[in-house]
Amino acid sequence: MTDILMPKATAVWLVDNTSLTFEQIADFCGLHPLEVKGIADGEVARDIRGADPIANGQLSREELDKAQANAAFRMTQQKSRHAELLKPVKKAPRYTPVSRRQDRPDAIAWFVRNHPEVTDAQISRLLGTTKATIDQVRNRTHWNSANIKPVDPVTLGLTSQLELDALVRKAADKKTKDDARRGVEEPDGATLKPASESDMAGAASEDAEG
Length: 210
Hints:
The protein is mostly helical. The protein contains eleven helices and no strands. Helix 1 runs antiparallel to helix 2, helix 2 crosses helix 3 and helix 7 crosses helix 9.
């Protein structure tokens, strides 16, 4: 037996279009007979549109005819031809060729140095690595730390430029929103000034000294 894709919608259709008993419908749809009675009385699933189990391949016309002719008969569910299409698709982990796996630490080092706003979880998903490895590269406790050098993951063939750009942009946007929400301040409580203002202040100070 398979699970009915839309049990209440199917029950609505069976109540409206067949002479099956509440028990037969409940058994087929995996519902309680009182729920089916509530549907028939208009107290349950009033806004749900009926779903034809014959049209979607979960019930054969022969099974339905047998059930309507015999109240003791229990219908057998068929595997819906739509079931596989409606299943949520789980994204497979990123596969990295064996020949490229030794390059991951270099790519991690590149992220650590150039894009600290990218989270470990994002790096892990993009490169197909683990948070433990990222920590080891960051803290220089990786077994091969002496030979690790920051290299762009696109150059290493670990991702595409489009994927990298999208990830960096997403991380930057999130950091900007987080900073705005928290209100980025200097240690003394003064709000950080834009770099351009800081440069102007420095130039004015030099002029005054001159």
